[in-house]
Amino acid sequence: xxxxxxxxxxxxxxxxxxxxxxxxxxxxxxxxxxxxxxxxxxxxxxxxxxxxxxxxxxxxxxxxxxxxxxxxxxxxxxxxxxxxxxxxxxxxxxxxxxxx
Length: 100
Description:
By secondary structure, this protein is α+β, with helices and mostly antiparallel strands. The protein is built from three helices and two strands.
């Protein structure tokens, strides 16, 4: 995410340590009511990032790793099915007809 189009703005820390984010910041980051933010301090800078941004980054890393693994989606799903069947059989002592 770049900072193109967003100029620094002042916000006030209120009585209960709350701040209000300007609308243009929320629009730029795609923030909606109820979204979670990650807040941390790096050197002397307060950094605030949307948690959904972190989830998207993690998903991209998983996709990159998966695509470079050489395992197809079909193979992965089949291995998962076999593992679920084995666990079911161990727990309940019988073979399933077909687990999802």
